[in-house]
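Below: protein 1.
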Amino acid sequence: MLKKFLSKIVIPIIISIICGFISGKFIYNLYMENNDSLLKNNTIYLIESADYQSYDIMRENSQTNNYIYYQEKGTYKTVVGITKNQDNIEKISQVYDEDLKVSKYYLNDTNLNKKITNNDNLLSKANSNEEIKSIINETLSLYKENNNVKLTKIS
């Protein structure tokens, strides 16, 4: 009688638990692969020049003419470069003769992501400071053209 009970109820329950665990693990791994790939492809780096307490102070003290800014936690942050390629961060930093901070953001705009990637490819090949600045300015203007772009801070 106990054998009959085990074979009809307990064994199917154990098999179901094992199948559920294996299925769950498989689905989770698929989700994480897609999520990591999506995050990697849509990550951009904002190279920031400085933080300012007010808009007027930011306008007075900004040394470059071409920059974008955003407000976060009561301060204005000026962005002098945007890239998706970590190798280009150093190249951008060398053009500006000041301490720069890098912030990592998620950009969910496929069109803008493609354009930034194209500019990054050009930036990787650029050698002169004039050429690098020109590409940086073009990338910043791409962002300026898209007023409704939303960024999500990653770190």
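Below: protein 2.
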Amino acid sequence: METYSRYGSLVLGIILTANVTSAKAADNDSPFSASAFAGYEYDSNITVDQIDSNSGLGDDALILEGAIGYAVVDNDDVRLNVGYDFYQSLHDDVTEFDLQIHGFNADTSYSIDDFDLGLMYMFNTIDLGSDPFLDIHSIRPSVGYMIDSKDIYLLASYEYQDQKFDSVSLEGRNAKKNSASVKGIVLMEEGRTFTATYTYSDHNANDDAYSYQGNMAGVSVKIPFDLTDNEAIFRGSYRFYHKNYGIESLIYDDEERTDKRHTFRTSVEVPIIHGFKGKLEYEYINSISTLAALDYNESVFTAGIGWEF
């Protein structure tokens, strides 16, 4: 249980750092932004989607997240931001599934009347079980439009990903992925939103057995509400993902591989004090596949404390 003996000190460190930084950040015009999160997670069935790995085991984990950002340019027409994100999971027993992610990003946008033209670049480097695992380069241009009524925002984007695994044994999974997405956001009174999304993906791996065409559709809601004189936020979402593999996937079984996944997620965020908030989240995954390793159910519960300015 050494993982959890560190939990209290880590949260305390976040609190002390936040109290000092929030005093410096009293000026809301600061170009700097930062956030941190420390929490407990229970996963009933730890999986690694990128390599079709399903442990069949549940475990507790300490979750640590952090992000910093800097607005290089920020005015009515032009915006340019750069940032860094960090994620770490520390499992109690199955430490070979510990994830560490370092993410670097730069995004810019230019507004013309009711249109927003955007471009984002991201680089994520991922360790699995303390070993180098996967690097992902992404570039995403986008076009957004606010309709005349000002209560519906439409967004269309294209994303290119270059995925490269560190292990020679996984080189067949190295891939180039092209995705196109459309999203509609309905802006309602009192900060409530409803979002609908559709994404088509074409995933081309070095080994055709891992190549697929995917369709994802999802909906989500955000509902602020009053809780003991504070504004808490409820979020809920549902996503359906369908992947079709080609005839080369017959190496897995006596039929072509098909994956279907239903994902339900709900969360509540409650403000505490000085930029701190408590968060509870539950996620349920129903994965249906002709590949036995990906035919499973999974529940993930997360509780923790976050801070941001």
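The chain is about 5% helix and 65% strand.
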